[in-house]
Write a structure and sequence with these properties.
It is built from 3 helices and 10 strands, in the order E-E-H-E-E-E-E-H-E-H-E-E-E. It is α+β, with helices and mostly antiparallel strands.
Amino acid sequence: MGEIIFKDKKNIYKISIDKKLMDEIYKVCQGALPNETGGILIGYYTEGCNLAVITKILRAPPDSKSGPTWFFRGIHGVKRKLDALWKEKKQFYIGEWHYHPNSSSDLSYQDIKQMTSISNSRSYNCPEPILLIVGGNSLAWENSVYVFPKGRDLVYLKNKTFLDK
């Protein structure tokens, strides 16, 4: 079907996500209306560590809470799923995704605060977490992708290419 590539203007950070996986995210978002939803991005880095490949999403755990303008991702069952993905596929936590229903995919102050905390957290062990925000609805989806390097300013990634496989 194809992959979507996001990268920064200096070509330092690149992220790949399969179009089918984005369609899965859109379906989850549509089902959550009118509330926000979200989850975890799973994947791996290529050998040169110059491309993050997102291979799977984890949906909101059952202890998550949400409303039309807020989302709190729960933790129930997350560690078990992450451990299994590492053991079976050598894939791991890469970041977070969430949905701004019928709204812009621009990040909020709360998004920046949360992702900066994750990049500084030893328990996450992810010094450059990715945040994918989906905005809009099935009439017009909008995506924004950011990287939060530990100790540095966040980096916005643009959708640069769409590659057929």
